[in-house]
Automatic annotation (TrEMBL):
Record flagged with keyword Transport: yes
Signal sequence residues: 1-25
Domain annotation Leucine-binding protein: ranges: 27-362
Keyword Ligase: no
Organism, scientific name: Phyllobacterium zundukense
Domain of life (superkingdom): Bacteria
PANTHER family membership: BLR7848 PROTEIN, LEUCINE-SPECIFIC-BINDING PROTEIN
Protein name from the UniProt record: ABC transporter substrate-binding protein
Keywords, in A-Z order: Amino-acid transport, Signal, Transport
Family from the record: Belongs to the leucine-binding protein family.
Gene Ontology BP terms: amino acid transport
UniProt xrefs under SUPFAM superfamilies: Periplasmic binding protein-like I (SSF53822)
Length: 382
């Protein structure tokens, strides 16, 4: 469990010395993040990003003259823990907003708590169900899985691919993206000839991939999933020498995926990603260039680690929240909620965000870049 060490130490000293603890912050922001566990490659950069940004903004004077306090818990990717921590953040810590829900499962567990408490929640997970249908106090920063499907199918159609094999993770993200892809695939004139799945702890997907390879007519393979599963699929795919284009999801859009799968096995893999992964390749006049370069440089200097798409989701959530508090001129949850919904033209690492009463994401397909792994790195293919 993670929490504000500064606040805890101050409280302990106050009790020992017999006086009330001073207020170290005026605006409390909560977070429940999967810093450890199977989704730690997502949650660790998210947590590091939030801590870094809070330090930066407090050093610059805070928000509307008030300092921020980040109270963060590590849910380990467990939806039950995420729900418990969300309740604690609202009832005991009295936060004015919550950022987190690293995975679809933890996000869906958090939503009822924040909706009941009427405290704004900005999710860092991908599933469209998080914001569709729209829930008054729930927002998100990553592109939806449905959008990822559309971006992939656009590229397939452009390349004359009309028949594919599908291999999906059975976790919350994989199952949701599979559902969304199947819902819209017909719009692109593409047919699924093979449909396989694998579990979150499976260590070998060779049988499923062998079934797909043996299916006559398959022209490409799509793997909706996140975590270690897609890396295993990619390695097995190379070992079987399937010889067809392999598409992955935005759920693995990070350098960590290349390292886990192996650069040789990952060579040629395509997926939709954000500008952050190709910051140095963006033209000077790209509106996102300054934002992604600044975040990339700050994060890598602060942590000594390469930036990731997932940390970018936390970066954008934090910027949306701070922008909303500034515009609202208030730290009341209801005022913050209204201001988040009124976000317009905010340039982040994931895209330019414009929300509304009917859109609690605020991104369109133009925010996605179709990327390809070449020579162990990322290339823009459009």
């Amino acid at each position: 469990m993670k929490f504000s060490a500064t606040t805890a130490l101050a409280g302990s000293l106050a009790l020992v010395l017999g006086f009330a603890a001073p207020a170290f912050a005026d605006i409390k922001i909560g977070a429940t993040i999967s810093e450890t566990g199977p989704a730690s490659f997502l949650g660790d950069p998210e947590a590091k990003t939030l801590k870094m940004l809070v330090e930066e903004i407090n050093a610059a004077g805070g928000v509307n003259g008030e300092k921020l306090e980040l109270i963060i818990y590590d849910d380990g990717g467990d939806p039950n823990k995420a729900r418990t921590f969300a309740t604690r953040l609202v009832e005991d810590d009295e936060v004015v907003a919550l950022i987190g829900g690293t995975t679809t499962g933890t996000s869906m567990a958090i939503i009822p708590v924040l909706e009941d408490a009427e405290v704004p929640f900005i999710s860092l997970a991908g599933a469209v169900e998080i914001i569709d249908p729209v829930k008054p106090f729930v927002f998100k920063t990553p592109h939806t899985d449905r959008m990822a499907c559309a971006k992939i199918f656009e590229d397939m159609k452009k390349n004359g691919i009309t028949k594919i094999g599908l291999i999906s993770g059975s976790d919350g993200f994989g199952a949701s993206m599979r559902k969304q892809c199947l819902a819209i695939i017909g719009e692109y004139g593409i047919e699924v000839l093979a449909d396989e799945t694998y579990g979150p702890t499976d260590a070998d997907m060779t049988p499923q991939l062998t079934n797909i390879k043996g299916k006559d007519g398959v022209q490409a393979v799509l793997n909706p999933g996140f975590g270690q599963g897609p890396a295993i699929v990619t390695r097995n795919y190379a070992q079987l020498a399937v010889g067809l284009p392999l598409y992955q999801s935005h759920g693995v859009a990070s350098d960590g995926f290349i390292e886990l799968a192996g650069a040789q096995a990952a060579e040629g893999v395509k997926l939709p990603g954000t500008a952050l992964l190709v910051a140095g390749l963006l033209p000077e006049n790209d509106p996102q260039r300054a934002v992604v370069v600044a975040y990339k440089e700050a994060y890598e200097k602060a942590t000594g680690k390469p930036v990731s798409t997932f940390g970018g989701y936390a970066h954008d959530a934090f910027r949306i929240l701070v922008d909303a508090i500034k515009r609202a001129g208030s730290a009341e949850p209801s005022a913050i909620r209204d201001a988040i919904e009124g976000t317009s033209g905010l340039v982040g690492t994931t895209g330019t965000v414009t929300m509304s009463a009917t859109d609690h994401l605020g991104l369109d397909l133009s925010a996605f870049r179709m990327l390809k792994i070449e020579d162990g790195g990322w290339k823009i293919v459009e």
